[in-house]
Amino acid sequence: MLEKLYGKALPLVKTSQWPINIPNILTVGRILLTPLFVILLLKGYFFLALLTFTLAGISDGLDGFIARCFNQRTVIGAYLDPIADKFLLIAAYVTLAVLDIVPGWISVLVISRDTLILAGIAVFTFSDIRPSIRPTLLSKCTTAAQLGLVFIALLEPDVPLAFPVALPVLWLTAALTICSGLHYMLVGVSVLQKGLEKNHQPDR
After folding, report:
1. CA geometry: angle at 179 spanning 144 and 118, to 5°?
2. How far apart are CA 129 and CA 75, in angstroms?
3. 181 and 113 in contact (C-beta within 8 Å)?
4. Spatial separation of the C-alpha atoms in residues 37 and 48, rounded to whole Å
5. Dist CA 75 CA 70 (whole Å)
């Protein structure tokens, strides 16, 4: 039944029978931590915001580790985990830009990349295309750089990007975000073209 619903994407995920497990609880917890993180930032409680963001980042790595090592992967978890990551990052960069802690242009880059990915998923869904896509090494490095920049910015929010390592991380994050976005665009166009050709092949 699940194979009929999720097509080719399902074999990539070794699912457990019960969706309520520790990895998914951690993922939902990360989603719930995001509004708390934003509220703490807006109230000026930067140290507490940093702790909340760090906790969310730890949960991101922990849920994936537990899911892989204890065979607790689920279909809903495969969808929730990237949503939780993007929710946290978009909220962080929008809030930090509003507070002038990070440059606005880097927030635009981060949000544009994530919007591009979500738009691509929507196009695939409406086109009845279910590609088997896993996060690439470039995508993982991009996410790590984006998380790292937020962490560095929160260490000294009164003097935005004051640390010597901050500017290199800023430009590295920008470069990785642009490259990752272009990569997703090229792969997405290729997959869409192949999917449309396959779906519109005449019946024999």
Report:
1. 75
2. 17
3. yes
4. 8
5. 15
Query: What pTM was computed for the model?
Result: 0.79
40 Cβ neighbours under 8 A, 6+ residues apart: 46, 48, 49, 52
Query: CA-to-CA distance for 184 and 171, rounded, in angstroms?
Result: 20
Tell me the pLDDT of the chain (204 aa) as tens digits.
Answer: 333 333 444 444 444 455 678 888 888 899 999 999 999 999 999 999 999 999 998 888 887 778 778 776 777 777 788 888 889 999 999 999 999 999 999 999 999 998 888 787 777 777 777 766 567 889 889 988 999 999 999 988 877 777 788 889 999 999 999 999 999 889 888 877 777 767 666 554
